[in-house]
Amino acid sequence: MSKFNFSGLKSNKDTGFGDNFSGRFIDKNGYPNVQKRGVGILNRYSWYHTMLNLPRWQFIALLISGYIVINFIFAMIYFLIGVEHLTGINRSSLMDEFTDVFFFSTQTFTTVGYGRIAPVGFLASLVATFEAFLGLLGFAIATGLFFGRFSRPRAFLKFSDVALISPYKDRSGLMFRMAPFKNTSLTDASITVLASFEITENGETKSSFYNLKLEVTTITSLILNWTIVHYIDEQSPFYGLSSDDLKTIAIEIIVHVKAFDSIFSSDVVQRTSYTSQEIIYGAKFEKMYNPDETNLFTVLHLDKINSYFPASLPDIS
Amino acid sequence: MSKFNFSGLKSNKDTGFGDNFSGRFIDKNGYPNVQKRGVGILNRYSWYHTMLNLPRWQFIALLISGYIVINFIFAMIYFLIGVEHLTGINRSSLMDEFTDVFFFSTQTFTTVGYGRIAPVGFLASLVATFEAFLGLLGFAIATGLFFGRFSRPRAFLKFSDVALISPYKDRSGLMFRMAPFKNTSLTDASITVLASFEITENGETKSSFYNLKLEVTTITSLILNWTIVHYIDEQSPFYGLSSDDLKTIAIEIIVHVKAFDSIFSSDVVQRTSYTSQEIIYGAKFEKMYNPDETNLFTVLHLDKINSYFPASLPDIS
Amino acid sequence: MSKFNFSGLKSNKDTGFGDNFSGRFIDKNGYPNVQKRGVGILNRYSWYHTMLNLPRWQFIALLISGYIVINFIFAMIYFLIGVEHLTGINRSSLMDEFTDVFFFSTQTFTTVGYGRIAPVGFLASLVATFEAFLGLLGFAIATGLFFGRFSRPRAFLKFSDVALISPYKDRSGLMFRMAPFKNTSLTDASITVLASFEITENGETKSSFYNLKLEVTTITSLILNWTIVHYIDEQSPFYGLSSDDLKTIAIEIIVHVKAFDSIFSSDVVQRTSYTSQEIIYGAKFEKMYNPDETNLFTVLHLDKINSYFPASLPDIS
Amino acid sequence: MSKFNFSGLKSNKDTGFGDNFSGRFIDKNGYPNVQKRGVGILNRYSWYHTMLNLPRWQFIALLISGYIVINFIFAMIYFLIGVEHLTGINRSSLMDEFTDVFFFSTQTFTTVGYGRIAPVGFLASLVATFEAFLGLLGFAIATGLFFGRFSRPRAFLKFSDVALISPYKDRSGLMFRMAPFKNTSLTDASITVLASFEITENGETKSSFYNLKLEVTTITSLILNWTIVHYIDEQSPFYGLSSDDLKTIAIEIIVHVKAFDSIFSSDVVQRTSYTSQEIIYGAKFEKMYNPDETNLFTVLHLDKINSYFPASLPDIS
């Protein structure tokens, strides 16, 4: 189907991605497209990993609804024990009783304990004792989750949405770029890029993986944008690939960046991928930083990360 | 006793496992079979390591029983000081008194402090002051323990229960496999495999350790299952080992996996071991992943990790 | 403009600093002189990184003012609901009412809950329930921030304010020094030094980067001061640089230190830089440590880190 | 003074220990014998490092005394504001008044807030508001400190008190040993050993450092004891050293161990040192582990770590 062949290239068989899949191996955010089956849901998830990955508003909604549900359950228990075992309850109506019992529960769970309503007798006191204990442990766990969430080291890298095939040296190069978009401090960044090509041989469709040779694989300080360049020479699996080939062959470029965050003192990684549809043939990135007017610092224009312009490629046939 | 000899192989003398032990060096879960003696129990355990390793229900049971015991002790102290130094105590019977004193203690320890019962006078107030302080510190420690427990980086790898001697290339290979079973994100996994053979020489039984050469020792992304393959050639200590030898020679395969968990940004390790009894002679693993019907993602069947079928080995005599 | 040229030297093109900037690349404290634009302020900052970097008094001021503002808002809400839904309010004047409502709010937020003032009825109780919940979460977050701040691994290195060009061997050397100034325990320290020279070629001004070769790049224990020495031989970009050149050429020496803090069990990094103005031509550092009078330990004089004396350089023309 | 010389040996000049000190470079627990001067006490200490290193009882004593002092100060403030601004105070005597005020303070600081005593009026309420806030922040900090203390990765290695010069191969070897004494899980341990010799040359006394070549420098699993062996051949600075030399020459052996703690997923380091007085000439260590009677596990006798017996060294003159 394609004029080029890979026979002279050494494929990478140890990627961990398997070989019989024609969709996207990892999604734009770096998560693998894998579904696990055959284990119960409780064993399949690390609830802590899940909590760390939950979007902020979902995490907060979960905390609030948990708070309401637990207090509702305890209110029911106190109600069943009998409101006469709580002092200060407004007993005008069942509704009023339940309201007071519910708020007694919240005052116990949060350990506010105003005392306007207080337990009398063994059973109500026992439940309140247990509820206050549970409340404190609950907030202990919430403290841990909050800390775990915001102390979780993340790279905060923004990748260009597309990769380009740009004129480079006497030929062309595959390029994409990234930039740190938050006030992090990344040093010693390194990158590995893998390309998967779906190849049909003897009627069987298989994915082959190739490590892409890069012009620069490590950088001392990741302060400005970093344009990753793969020179397309005879050793490249992209050699001879035409604009049309990009539309017909399923290609995926899998990117893996590792850097040292010197504020957290921890390694951080981030991944992304580009499929054939996200590779632009014949284009060049615009420069995205320049000195400030005052010439005292450099300005990095993060909104320009996807800015490119057409650029014709040399004909090497 | 065995027809093969190890004379041409270089054994590994720096394993740290010692040399005169004929049982299992490490158990299935990776813990070494070593007992420490000669130091007091307080010095022998790092209580924090212990707390991190405790099963969840034991940890919770420990917290609850600690809570009850501490409050019981404080209740005794208040009782000895005299219930007349607490306001609002129900003094109908000794039992009622103690109940109220106990719940006053829990209300102090959890800092709920309804105030229906409150200390009056120096001594009761002093004890309550100390108890509230202790309560807060206790919950501070519990917070730390909770966080320590769930933020503890773990690999969450499932290993196959058995290792197989499978047909491989023109000969045979020792194989076992592993898969990540939770929603972790492991990259840069590496593995080392050590085999111990109990050899009787000049009437003395000794364990010899050999590093097993593997076909692949590192993998970029640990997303699907990973089958570890040791090719049994002339350089392998398994060369010439027959099905019967497996029943008579004490062998232990010690596995050590290290990977980078990109959610925790931390290295994680996991160990396991296979003894002679856990090595199946002449069998092959079934494939455990396939594309989804929709062809959009890969399905990993974790329940198939132990699935294998018989496969006859080539005769190389 | 300068008599020396760099034609024989290999410049480092992978520093991540860009190439068209004539100011200072990183400031004295190691932060890069880069401004990010083109993303909203919420996306541009990692609030957690910001909180970790905030000076102590600003952090505390932020906590206190947050505490006041939140309680003021809740006081307003209770006031709007109506003070008749709170027991025990002093209703002599509007001011007195608001005062009591405000302090009811603080007693709820901190979960003190004396109970002299307590909510009655659905609405006030509901708001109080929410406030106590918010209070606990707020303190959970504060706990995390405190821990994040003080457990953040930092190198605590003091660098000499200036670098010297000192007599060294038969010629001269570029020297600066550092010392750990707190009770940390740093081991396995390593250093890399980069020099940027602003060079005007064909009317275009560009920064070129050179890795400086050091006499010692790693040190086992960073206990006393460490004097970093770059021997200025023919391979050095500083070769032939005169005292006057230092005044006219924009040079920046960028220093990057990495060490292992054995108390935190974590790698720590620190950066600094020296510009032309901070390089002293013809001077030597004074020794800054000596044995104690008792000869039992070594004394490190941190106040001497900037002590140097003039020393004439050999003439090598 | 000694018959041997070091002229043929390459000394290590990059140890970071300095060169003019004749006492002990690091103490038995691995802390360097260095005193820092010339900076204020506040800048000289990282209070967090200090808190992590404080012995347990000192840490607890500090917490308790801080708690008492703070409450005493607040009690004074409430007293100065006037006890009439607190409800429920026992006003029989000044002493009773102060007692009640003090306990009101502790009930506020710990947020127990029984409410038997409660603030009335602006000033007392304001101070109470601030105290409750401070209390919560204080416990937030205590939580962080507790967690920091017990989650601090430590190696928990026990070293033999002495090093031995034992018969080894055809000659002799310098040996000492270590063992993990707690329920940790250490892997990939590595060791470096440095020896300092005080040498008087031309009337000047100087310390020279030599890296000792070890038989084994890394070990896969640090489960049992590890005996470190330095073979004393012609390349060793100990070559030709007699029993008498040990008494007259100031020698220090500086030991640095690094290992990976797989429970904390963190590197841990530990250091120690041996001086001439702690080197025994002509002795051998007893074996300190053996299989259990049941032959199911290995027993490590930690109390035997210092057990050795005399062993005559070969005469190589």
Summarize the entry for a quick read.
The structure is a homotetramer of 317-residue chains. With 317 residues, chain A is α+β, with helices and mostly antiparallel strands.
Which properties best describe this structure?
homotetramer, 317 residues, alpha+beta, Helix Hairpins, Immunoglobulin-like, 2 domains, five-stranded mixed beta sheet, five-stranded antiparallel beta sheet, 6 helices, 17 strands, 31% strand, elongated
CATH architecture of the largest domain in chain A: Sandwich
What helical percentage do the residues of chain A reach?
25-40%
- With helices defined by DSSP (H or I, 4 residues minimum), what is the helix count of chain A? 6
Tell me the radius of gyration of chain A.
29 Å
CATH class of the largest domain in chain A: Mainly Beta
**Low-confidence segments of chain A:** none
The major β-sheet of chain A equals: 5 strands, mixed
